[in-house]
Amino acid sequence: METITLKSLGGAGTVTGSKHYLKTPELNILIDCGLFQGIKALREQNWEPLNINIKEIDLIILTHAHLDHCGYIPFLVKSGFKGKIYMTEPTRELAKLILLDSAKLQEEDTEKANYHHYTKHHPAKPLYTINDAERAFKYFYIINENTNIQLSEHIQFRFKPCGHIIGACSIEIVCFGKTIIFSGDIGRNKSAILPPPDFFTTADIIVMESTYGNRLHDNSNLYDKLTYWINSTIKNHGNIIIPSFAVGRTQELIYILYQLKEQNKIPRNLPIVIDSPMAALATDIMIDFAEYTTVKKEKWLEIIQQIDINREYSRTEEIVRNKKSKIIIAGSGMVTGGRVLEYLKHDVGNNKNTVLIVGFQAEGTRGRALLNDSHELKIHGKYYPVKANVVELTGLSAHADQTELIDWIRKYEIPPQKIMLVHGEPSALEALRVKIQTELQISVKILVKDEEVIC
Q1: Tens of pLDDT along 43-94?
Q2: Mean predicted lDDT score pLDDT of the chain
Q3: pLDDT of residue 71
Q4: pLDDT band at 404 (very low <50, low <70, confident <90, very high)
């Protein structure tokens, strides 16, 4: 019997830094290569050496392009990795955008830290640079969905779309006769712009995400809720601020808002501003790959004609000063940085305004603080009182909830022998473990970082 082992180098016991290392007699495969985000204790792990020899990794397979799944790639390449990195075509284009942005922000943060001397390192250095990111792109290798790729004599894999964002896939690895599925981030069964997740039907082991393993999304009418909060806010002459992830969520939002205007549920002349250069570029990419969505390219082109897309930081202050009610969609999605901070500094202290939270908010982020009814936010060294309405709309989440995750497992014709849970906070992991074992009678293990498990 050939020994196959799995070790999670990230994304175990947390929702960030996904890296799962599959060691086999023929190849050593890294599934995802993400950056740790969120609280300082997590971010510091990006600087710690991996609990493996980087030069022993033969190849990487990428589920999708979000930073917590691809953001460590340039550092890995800089450290000696020289294998192929397999991904879908939309993932390649989005990953390039996200990695260049990540590198640019790191260079800027390092420059500020050195200039203002608020670093214990002399000088401070970025984890990787723009040049490092660009050097990594030559290892990107495009694979079509639903195509079997023979990696070695006894190992093959294929992608299957899983919703979440364009190009996102689950991965099936057949290795020495054993079938191991990596779910990636599973999308919603009913997205406004994406087809429902596809699925495999056989597996020995499933390595599965658990982001919302302890929660059910609100199934009441999302459109009605959005309509209510938008109309009540503009009636009070306030602004609607939506911190939004540049890739996926922003595009879904503008499609839904377009529909609300078409249905005369919100004023047709209500300004909608996207203030995020990355969201603007991600929207361009999504239009280029419109066939991966349920919306035709012509419709997307019509929709963006009605949006004020601001790419220049110099215009942000002008938009902030404009007293007319508007909807602002700005990064970052968890309020950890980006232009949304400029709007919050100006608007979060006024009860006429509404902040709509539309995605997962990790522990330690300002977005989580807002959801936890924090009375103040610290932004750029200063505290701002929170008086605006803060409303969570889970119906816009790009992650499956507990019921959808369970339904995804039920689609397997023969239940897997074991499910290994990753990509969740401890309470979500434990709740999903109990639910799977109780309802489906499948053995479940919660993976621990750097623990080697025999598959």
Answers
A1: 899 999 999 999 999 999 999 999 999 999 999 999 999 999 999 999 999 9
A2: 94
A3: 97
A4: very high
pTM: 0.93
CB proximity list for 112: less than 8 A, separation 6 or greater? none
Q: Token digits for 98? A: 């996200």
Strand segments, DSSP code E, in 108-204 are 140-142, 149-152, 155-161, 169-175, 178-182
CA distances from 378 to 37, 363, 365, 369, 370 (A): 18, 15, 11, 10, 11
Are 402 and 215 in contact by the 8 Å Cβ rule? The answer is: yes
Domains of the chain: 5-215+399-454 (3.60.15.10), 222-396 (3.40.50.10890)
Tokens 């740790």 identify what position?
Answer: 36
Amino acid at 442: I
What is the 3-class SS of 81-98, one letter each residue? Answer: CCCEEEECHHHHHHHHHH
- Joined together, the tokens standing for residue 232 give 């009540």
Is the N-terminal amide bond of 332 cis, ω within 30° of 0?
A: yes
Helix H or strand E segment including 454: strand 452-454
